[in-house]
Amino acid sequence: MDSFEMTKIAGAVLSALLLIVGTKTFIESTSHRKLATPGYELPAAAEPAAVAGAEGAAAEGAAAEGAAPAGGDIGPDAVALLPKASAENGKAIFAKCKSCHTADKGKPNGVGPNLFGVVNRAKAKADGFKYSEAMVAKSGEWTFENLSHFIADPKSYVAGTKMVFKGLPAAAERADLIAYLATLADTPVPLPK
Ligand code: HEC
């Protein structure tokens, strides 16, 4: 083996070493960069939610107004407020629904079904409206309680509904809105006393 060959071998070994060290450094630096942010932020983001949940549980029914529909009973809370609900105010709140729903008797369906007579009507029964399979599969009637639950959080009440509405968490607003829906009938549905 002459010295020229020795130099070639030494060179090859050196470049192999360089490649290994270089790759290792590169991997370490990139993986560190990736880990740095989420590693810290995930638990931090989860914490406020847990605190909010605990507060919500502590406040219980007392602060029904404005309470987020996180789990729990979101149907009955608005129903309890119905005796004092304002249909007048509910009519104004119905502005949130008007882009998709008609309210007058005989008006054609919009993006959503016509809501005349919806209180106590069987679900998914507006003439000529093509409901989602999820809604068709949901049995029962639109009682005050069911309406409250659905309006509070449509997707939690009917998973797979095609009603694209994020929900109305404030119980008092839902109560007023339901009081208004109750007037949309030939004979308005009486509210609980
Ligand atoms: C972006 C459009 C949109 C908005 C806004 C909207 N809805 Fe709907 N709604 C729909 C659609 C679509 C359906 C049919 C859902 C299905 O088939 O899954 C529906 C269904 C319903 C039903 C069931 C009716 C039946 O015949 O079974 C009720 C009740 C209802 N909506 C009430 C409301 C109320 C109250 C509001 C306002 C707070 C509202 N919706 C806002 C689109 C909308």
What do you see in this structure?
This protein has helices at 3-59, 76-81, 87-93, 133-137, 144-152, 154-157, 171-183. The protein is mostly helical and 193 residues long. The protein has two domains: 3-62; 69-183, Cytochrome Bc1 Complex, Chain D, domain 2 (Orthogonal Bundle), CATH 1.10.760. Helix 3 (87-93) packs across helix 7 (171-183) and helix 5 (144-152) packs across helix 7 (171-183). The protein is rod-shaped, with a radius of gyration of 30 Å. Bound molecules: heme C. The site of heme C has 29 residues, from helix 4 and helix 5. Residues 96-97, 99-101, 111-113, 118, 123-126, 131-132, 134-135, 142, 147, 150-151, 158, 161-165, 168, 177 line the site of heme C.
Strand content: under 5%
| Order of secondary-structure elements | HHHHHHH
Q: How many helices does DSSP assign?
A: 7
Overall strand count: 0
Task: Write the CATH fold name of the largest domain.
Answer: Cytochrome Bc1 Complex, Chain D, domain 2
